[in-house]
Amino acid sequence: MSAEKTNLVWQSVDSSKQARNVRKLRSAARWKVLVSATCVALASGMLGEDVYGQQAGTQSNGEKNMNAKLTIPCNHANFGLSPYAWKPMGSGDTARVEAIFPGAYFKTIVKGTTSAGLVIDGTANTGCPPGLMPIIEYSVDDGSFTVVPLTQAGSMYTCPLAANLDPAKEHRIEVYLRAADWGPQRWAASILHLRIAGVAVDAGGSLVPFPKRSRRAIGFGDSITEGIAAEGRFDKGNHLGNNNARGAWFPIVCAALDCEYGQFGSGGQGMINARLAVPPLPQTWDHYDATTSRLTNGLLLPEPDYVFCNMGTNDVLGDGTTEDDYTKAYPQWLAAVRAACPHASIFCVVPPSGRQRAGVRAAVATRNAAGDAKVHLIDTTSVTIPLMPNNGVPPGGTQGSYDTGHPSQWGHAIFGACVAVQVQKVLTTNSGAER
Fold it and tell me: Model pTM?
């Protein structure tokens, strides 16, 4: 696997901790889709309707010339924001979108320009400690991803993405929020978020629609879905450097199902775990953050084809809650999701460790008994993913995990492939009733 290339020419590393993070990122193993031909065979559908799901303006709305560069705003119709993940803010010259959870992305194509840059509103990160700043990664023309730990806060700035482009050709750009701190400020403030204003191109440059997948999915989970420790052992002194949301199981499943997706994994979150600053899932799933709802008149729009939940690892951990609390809360949450997504297929995934397996099964059975036949159990625990060691904790972790709890990218690939296969079986069996 090739090494990460980290382009930090545009910024300075202002602490020894940040320098260690950069070295870690340079040596981190790249995510390879180990799903092989099985998942390739699962990809379905032709490129179709606009699946990104963001309310977008026209090309002329809000464009502006800054220092001989044209900033095409984030609400442009061809910006290609991932569905459900970006909180829209402002309009015109003040249009912004803000991502709270790692895994948010946008995909677009630039033409008529020799360069491209991401215009970031760093005022969102005012006061953020340098080591806790968000980390992005980007790819140009399907090249390897470049990882960039952000360091600038308090003002607008441009992060270069590409230079020396041929303006006569179209150039594909993908940008992901790779990692973000999951501390106390994640839910209630913007200090740990990624807020963007647009893409900077040469005057006369423009955006072209990026080819879109045919379906949409939204997925909820904890640190596993967030991709924490996917590229190295969890370390509080360097925990962001080892995270990779794009390398987690959920994007693998969505690639197999041909879905654009909204990824919502938050370290430590649970169905009933109320010990963290991010509340339990039933209180957060329908909001961008603590103050802004994601729903429109009670509906999640555009409606996803698929809803995934991989929650339970952090529940009933000596905090006074019980298995019965979990078993009651889960189907109640499913009922709320069904009200907001009347036609979606919902997949309840047993965590790879098998925790709360009985509770997940009971929740699905409860909803099925209530007449909701499009809620399905996904249980891959029969496929052994070596997260836990046989004898103690080896210094280097295990085959499937660096820290015996969070899957490595190899572990995510196996888990994601198994989930995708089971989902495709469900959809094939119920092809007349499910999308």
Answer: 0.85
